[in-house]
Specification:
Blueprint (H helix, E strand, L loop, with lengths): L4 H10 L22 E5 L10 H9 L2 E4 L16 E4 L11 H13 L4 E5 L9 H11 L3 E4 L4 H7 L15 E4 L13 H7 L3 E4 L5 H10 L7 E6 L7 E6 L3 H7 L6 E5 L6 H4 L4 H4 L5
Parallel strand pairs: 1-4, 1-5, 2-3, 2-4, 6-7
Antiparallel strand pairs: 7-10, 8-9, 8-10
Bound molecules: S-adenosyl-L-homocysteine (SAH).
């Protein structure tokens, strides 16, 4: 079978068609069956970074259950008549228990609804998507997973930070600065992490940043290692702050980074002067 792009284009030409003949609404998207849950990543924020399957799910669902980190601007594409439910914190109240959200998904799907569970970034990157699917599987609810662009990769790209670059790092570590109890995760081997990779991408790390920095320095990480904090990545209010590992405490005394934020340790920040492309004019565009 011919699969490379050149032969594909040639076969279209032979058949009298050409690029441009296809329309998205004519595509054979997978059918969103009643009683199913689609667990979908909405991307880091900018609406244009969602996937076609995410868009399709918004057209086909009966109910959307979305998280706090989902940019509400994308909900305008949810089909008219679908119900929109919020599953995050509300007015300072604690967030609903994970079990309660899973129960809600199970109830909605059991009543025959097409349930779109919409999460920020990628549902399996520190998004508890695995836990939700475990509950669904246990309850016998069929589900599909639609990955999304995670903030720790796509969000960094909007700040001119390549997660890998052959001249700086051949590996990257993703970690969370928070465990289920809200504390700095005790079961991360900070000394091993400090040594293992030139670049460490940290989610939910602002709250315990001072402690985390200490653990990484104790693990042998150099004080001069650059630390970059990208807040509201891919959004018009994106901000980037830069310091070094050794200067974190002074930095935090003078600055309060906005959240959500990704914290990156490592020299990929040295590419920023060249690669930072998301300027104030581009930020005016509401799609991305
Ligand atoms: N599943 C999500 C992560 C959920 S955990 C993903 O794949 O991106 C929540 C953390 O994600 C936040 O505390 C923050 O560290 C990060 N995050 C999510 N969206 C972000 C954004 N637009 N800008 C910066 N950080 C973001």
């Amino acid at each position: 079978m011919k699969t490379d792009a050149k032969s594909k284009l040639e076969s279209w030409a032979e058949a009298g068609t050409a690029p441009g003949f296809a329309r998205l609404d004519g595509e054979a998207f997978p059918v969103f069956e009643p009683g199913w849950v689609w667990l979908v990543g909405a991307g880091p924020g900018a609406p244009g970074l969602m996937s076609l399957l995410c868009y399709h799910a918004m057209q086909a669902c009966d109910v959307v259950v979305y998280d706090a980190l989902v940019n509400p601007d994308i909900l305008r594409w949810v089909r008219l008549g679908a119900e929109i439910q919020y599953a995050g914190k509300r007015g300072g109240k604690p967030s609903p228990l994970q079990r309660d959200i899973s129960e809600r998904l199970i109830e909605l799907a059991s009543s025959g609804k097409r349930v779109l569970r919409l999460k920020g970034g990628d549902p399996f990157m520190f998004g508890r998507g695995g836990e939700e699917c475990q509950h669904l599987a246990k309850a016998g609810i069929p589900f599909r997973i639609v990955p999304g662009i995670t903030s720790g990769v796509g969000g960094l790209a909007y700040a001119g930070l390549p997660a890998t670059h052959r001249d700086t790092n051949h590996s990257v570590i993703f970690l969370t600065g928070h465990d289920a109890s809200g504390k700095m995760p005790a079961n991360v081997d900070w000394a091993a992490v400090a040594r293992a990779s030139p670049v460490i991408v940290m989610y939910m790390a602002v709250k315990h940043l001072s402690e985390i920095a200490r653990a990484l320095r104790d693990g042998g990480r150099a004080d001069r290692d650059p630390l970059t904090i990208v807040s509201n990545a891919t959004m018009p209010d994106q901000t980037v702050l830069e310091t070094t590992l050794g200067a974190v405490d002074e930095f935090l005394a003078a600055n309060t980074p906005a959240t959500p934020a990704i914290v990156v340790l490592g020299r990929i920040s040295e590419w920023r002067p060249i690669l930072d492309w998301y300027d104030s004019r581009l930020k005016e565009n509401p799609i991305g």
